[in-house]
Amino acid sequence: MLRTAKCCCQDCAIAVEGEPALNAICHCQSCRRRTGTAFGWSVYFPDDRVIAITGTLMAYTKDGEAGYKRHFCARCGTTLYWKSFGFMADHTGIAGGCFADDSVAAPNMSAQHSSHYDWLSLPADWLHAG
Ligand SMILES: [Zn+2]
Ligand SMILES: [Zn+2]
Questions:
Q1: pTM for this structure?
Q2: Residue 114 Cα, ligand 1 centroid: separation in angstroms?
Q3: Contacts (Cβ under 8 Å, ≥6 apart) of 39
Q4: Region at 84 (left for phi over 0; alpha for psi -120 to 50; beta for the rest)
Q5: Which long-range contacts (CB under 8 A, 24 or more apart) does 86-92 make?
């Protein structure tokens, strides 16, 4: 199955095939700031399942084992995808909301779970990590 995630202004897109290797939300501060909301939604695909990346993207890097390189639209600023240096380094993380439809299944994991906002209730059957 081919799936395409797009930025807010739709100038940039990333197309992937196959099924996600990991489909999780994360409550860490970096994911909150990346999205400007209560958690990030990250859908990871193996690098070799990334079919096309189009549009003018810029990137910023945080160094180190917990670091990442995040690619965002030069026009609207949406962070569309990223590569983590330590975690799943041979995969590409895509912002789940950028698919903007039901083509990607619901997440099944809550990462940095112990940090989640008290007012947020999550499905009990999700895997809780961190
Ligand atoms: Zn854009
Ligand atoms: Zn996070």
A1: 0.95
A2: 33
A3: 25, 26, 27, 31, 32, 116, 120
A4: beta
A5: 88/21, 88/22, 88/44, 90/46, 90/47, 91/21, 91/22, 91/44, 91/45, 91/46, 91/47, 92/14, 92/16, 92/44, 92/45, 92/46, 92/47, 92/50
Residue 76 CA to ligand 2 center (angstroms) comes to: 22
Instruction: Pick the ligand that lies closest to the CA of residue 78.
Output: 1
Q: What is the CATH number of domain 2-129?
A: 3.90.1590.10
List, for residues 76-109, the tens digit of each pLDDT value.
999 999 999 988 999 999 999 999 988 899 999 9
**Residue 29 one-letter amino acid:** Q
Question: Which sequence spans correspond to the domains of the chain?
Answer: 2-129
- In the reported structure, the alpha carbon of residue 111 is separated from the centroid of ligand 1 by a whole-number distance in angstroms of 27
